[in-house]
Design a protein that fits this description.
CATH superfamily of the largest domain: P-loop containing nucleotide triphosphate hydrolases
Number of helices: 13
Shape: globular
Radius of gyration: 26 Å
Number of domains: 3
Oligomer: single chain
CATH topology of the largest domain: Rossmann fold
């Protein structure tokens, strides 16, 4: 074509052996894709989705896995036009929720959380339970991306028709628990899953937020993590309903039993996380399915005991109240930083504070005064 041309390195003497051409560019709007202010990032503009919420809710209640995945995707969306859809869907599903045992599983990286969940979840499926695994994956603070590879790790459990695995990005939330995890649990319960496993990122002592959304909190540890004094310094142990010494197999089995005894001595001096329940340590080998039955029996005893005493429902009520407070704080933060007055004034205050010409508290005070004045 006449508009085509050869690259600058084209050799006219070898025309027969050179087939590359440079075609003219195509002008247009990029089919809805526009470059944002941040270099290298693109945003695709999409129209508001039209969703039949009644049909979606009905399919979720029937246990349709595709509908369940769509519902969770809707919940995880941060788009403004999806918020009302999400709340309407939750309103339809709320009467069917709450009928499960919510188990939080945390531990340091390398403790074998994914392998343990696959073994534990497979065992529960064999017993006739329906298991939903909400695996939270760490989000990069630089790119905002996540690998979401936990489903690949749990290959056996992922193929089980009685199990559902949903990896979600942490979104930078403290402790690695996605801020929409609570709502996702409600949708899974409405779909008939009676055991919810929440696998957290596993970042050590900051992994405490999971306590506010589950019934039973399990901490996975390894042998050689330190002496008794080091164990007592770990504040997260005060929140655990059970400590599981994992990878108790092969030459490590004897050391794991010794570690279990050490943790039981530590737990004896700590206040139990749940009133009327004594936190204990057990051993397990997720690789060889050892100790899995004993762990489930312990959780079953915990559920029976706390439901009989009323502590189970009391904890659920307290968690719902905390959830309400958290959402209020989140909404206030969003309204504050997105307010036009704050968006125009904040850069000026930041420069004054960074340059050392103004105290931080004074800058904050001026921002709030401007915010409340604009709201009048």
């Amino acid at each position: 074509m006449k508009d085509e041309k050869k690259p600058e390195w084209y050799d006219p003497g070898k025309a027969d052996s050179f087939s590359s051409t440079v075609k003219p560019g195509v002008s247009g709007n990029g089919h809805g894709i526009e470059q944002t202010a941040k270099a290298g990032r693109f945003v695709k503009k999409t129209a508001a989705r039209k969703i039949d919420l009644d049909a979606l809710a009905a399919e979720i209640k029937e246990g349709n896995r595709t509908a369940l995945a769509k519902g969770i995707t809707l919940i995880e969306s941060n788009a403004d036009h999806d918020f009302q859809h999400t709340q309407a869907l939750l309103q339809l599903l709320l009467p069917r929720s709450g009928n499960s045992v919510r188990i939080g599983i945390t531990g340091v990286p390398g403790a074998g959380k994914s392998t343990f969940i696959e073994s534990f979840g497979s065992y529960l499926c064999e017993l006739g339970h329906k298991v939903a695994v909400l695996a939270v994956d760490p989000t990069s603070s630089l790119t905002g991306g996540s690998i979401l590879g936990d489903k690949t790790r749990m290959e056996k459990l992922a193929r089980n028709p009685r199990a559902f695995i949903r990896p979600s990005p942490s979104g930078g939330k403290l402790g690695g628990v996605h801020r929409k995890t609570r709502e996702t649990m409600l949708v899974c319960e409405a779909a008939g899953f009676d055991v919810i496993l929440v696998e957290t990122v596993g970042v050590g002592q900051s992994e405490v937020i999971v306590r506010d959304m589950v019934d039973f909190f399990m901490l996975l540890v390894l042998t050689g993590a330190g002496d008794e004094l080091q164990g007592m310094k770990k504040g997260i142990m005060e929140l655990a309903d059970s400590v599981i010494v994992n990878k108790a197999d092969g030459p490590n089995e004897q050391a794991a039993r010794k570690t279990k005894e050490e943790y039981n001595r530590i737990l004896h001096f700590l206040q139990p996380a749940t009133r009327g329940w004594q936190t204990t340590a057990l051993t397990s080998s997720a690789l060889h399915d050892k100790g899995i039955r004993e762990i489930w029996e312990m959780i079953s005893n915990f559920s029976s005991l706390t439901k009989e005493s009323g502590i189970f429902e009391e904890r659920r009520r307290v968690q719902t109240k905390e959830w309400l407070n958290d959402l209020i704080i989140d909404q206030l933060q969003i309204n504050f930083f997105h307010h036009p007055t704050i968006k125009s004034l904040l850069p000026k205050i930041e420069n004054e504070v960074i340059s050392g010409n103004r105290p931080v508290a004074s800058g904050v005070d001026e921002l709030f005064k401007a915010f409340f004045e604009a709201k009048k």
